[in-house]
Description:
The chain has helices spanning 6-27, 57-61, 76-95, 99-121, 126-138, 152-181, 216-229, 289-292, 311-349, 359-384; strands at residues 183-187, 193-197, 200-204, 240-242, 254-263, 266-275, 279-282, 285-288, 295-298, 301-305. By secondary structure, the protein is α+β, with helices and mostly antiparallel strands. It folds into three domains: 1-97, no CATH class; 105-182 and 308-386; 183-305, no CATH class. Strands 1, 2, 3, 4, 5, 6, 7, 8, 9 and 10 form a ten-stranded antiparallel sheet that branches. Strand 2 (193-197) and strand 3 (200-204) form a beta hairpin. The longest helix has 39 residues, at 311-349.
Amino acid sequence: MIEMFYPVIIFVFGAIAGSFLNVCIHRMPRELSIVWPGSFCPKCKIPIPWYENIPLLSYLILRGKCFRCRRPISFRYFFVELLNAVSWLLIWRSCGLSAAFAIAAVFVSMMIVVTLTDLETGFIPHGVTWTGMIFGVCVSVVNARLVPQGLWYHKLLASVLGLVTGAATIFAVAELGKLLFGKRKVRLAPGTVITIKDNRLLIDQPGAPLASRAGGVSGFFQRLADTLTRGQYLDPSCSSIAWDDIFNRSSDRIVFRAATLRFAGGNFKDVEVEISEKSFRVAGKEHALADAGVIEGRAEAMVLSREAMGFGDLCLMAMIGTFLGPWLTVLVFMFAPFIALPYALFCRFAKKQETIPYGPFLAVMAVIFYFAGPEILDLFSTLYGV
């Protein structure tokens, strides 16, 4: 008799889990606990009682606003709850109540957190990827999608090989990018403030430099020079860069000449600054980043390491590998650019953004191959005879 209520039960629990995913998406990039305190309004910070925090229904009843401050709450909260509930319902219809359902539900929910967090902040939480790696390896022995006809140790081996393959693929791409492109010197808009805070590089450019309006021959050549060098300026969309995306090797450095520089150790003018992962050098003296507090300087150019992939992407691919095994993990990496390219072109020409988060496209393709990988391989085998 209870079987007839299974769809409703699965949907409700999926929505409840989606509410927890929203907590992860909001708090993890801010390094806040996902356990304590309880739910609170992201605008006024007032705690939300349970009867105002019912998944899906509360958002609709309150019309997407906080009951107390009446300020709007992002539609993302409703969307994630609905997306996770529908995803769990579809997984249940495919797998039934089984170990396969539990594994797939956790995997898809983690991919939702990765996608939304990376889109909003450009950050892939290590708390998700490292937990996912451990979970993926631990449940591999009952994950039939890894090796459908294999014994438990075959599945465990496939999961571990998938982890290594995913990490090695991103590492190889990052190293190749370093080899081909090396360092990148960029110009910054006049008055740009560079801040090192909470293991992030923050670049506040007041605006793109204006083209010269001077007349005559000299004015023409100045305007021509402005046009030719405009591409050398750092795109304003690159305003916050995570430490893991800059320092992948011990030789990586951030270098700039600061017109002014201040931090806990003093104030300086017109000095060369060289920053490594855990320390920085100013006026020939080395300081530990941990002791410097917030570092703030003004500069008009800087040297950055070029990165094809960040450490967050490496951890994500390693996690994906534990669920998909080595072969499907490689295919995820190969096919992700096909769905990333249209979005990248849109951002480049419509929104004038130089970079895009790549994690969401890896996550989406991973979900596709998790559920349809064998069918996709059979299709390629039929089409190309391989």
